Amino acid sequence: MLNIKSSYLYDNNDPFFWLGDTAWLLFGRLKREEIIKYLDNRASLGFNVIQAILLFPSDSRNVRDYNDESYFDFVNEILLYAEELGIYFALLPCWGSSIKNNLINEDNYEEIINRITNKFKNNKNIIWVLGGDIRGDYNIDLFNKMGKLIKKNNPDKLITFHPFGRLGSYLWFNDEDWLDFNMYQSGHRRYDQLDLPWDPDSLDEATFGEDAYRYVYKAKTYANFKPIIDGEPSYEGVVQGLHDSTQPYWQDYDVRRYAYYGIFAGASGFTYGHGAIIQFYTEGKGEYGVKTKWQDALDAPGAKELIHLKRLMKSIDYTKGTNDDSLILNQGFKHDHKVVFKGLDYILIYNYLGNDTIINLNDYKDKEMAIWLMNPINGILTHLGSIRGLNKITLMPPKREDVLNDWVIILKELK
Length: 415
Description:
- The protein is of the alpha/beta class.
- The chain is built from eleven helices and 20 strands.
- Strands 8-7-6-5-4-12-11-10-9 form a nine-stranded mixed β-sheet. A six-stranded antiparallel β-sheet has the order 13-14-15-20-17-18, with helices on one face.
- The longest helix is centred in the first third of the chain and has 16 residues, at 69-84.
């Protein structure tokens, strides 16, 4: 079972690196055999968490009647199959629109929460997620009541909150006992799309846009720092800003940036998303500029590349590491910001632009440190030699033929 230790997620006594995928409409749109195909694919790519919605409004795209007990039996069957694959489901009882539209309210939330928590109380691979693209202060009392009731009924299961874009759950619930870990949504906008007329909800001092690492920094300003996950970054294959089809699309290199920024800042994991898979698009009218069928999107490059980040973090004792961007002596801004994660015997640096990097080695100069470059596209390591006795070093990664030239710089003590 998942639990919390030292501000990180654990599976029993082993650190649990959350590599999630976004499958909001999985239970509403797919048949059993399609879900099996999807889960098999995700397990093969190293994903161990699937984010999905359990209950849908009656006017939504759900093809099943969740008032029918057979729907819950169907969900239970899928949960059991996922457990065999080592996959957890991060289940949202409902989407935030159900709260906004008063479909779930003070009068009926107890009946709904009691029903689903009793139905799935014996499933070991559930993480409960409140919210659903909504500000916590939209109805903070109701969310707190729902969280407390879930924790009372399922004390063995972790709970978090999925917030509105470019915000974090820590803004409202960090000190609530029912919230086990925080989640932020770094969102789908470029730096120049901060203020769009159709959506003012997230404009406040905690909005950081593409500087995804800053959400983790913000969470660390709270005395009670809890593990934190980017639960919704820029999705691969959606238009930048979401709703204007004339805009360019987010690509796999954008996904990598959001992932490494968050993890090296100290997050406990990362949730990927693809514009076709979040809605399981096949044909007809889709949202967010979707062009690809979900079956074809299973092979999107961004989904395949994240396993290299997971393997890198599992190769070190990351639960004892910490973020320290001050090790970069030529630190830049926006996309030129280099994020650093370090331990006693290692330094990891994500360099999105692949430009020169000057590293402060004062705390490591008495150690013999091997230097590696990791290509985040394929995980291939290039050994650059070893150093000792230097106060600083300048590294210039080579140029790749890719659109972007991002690299991971790895320094590890030779023992």
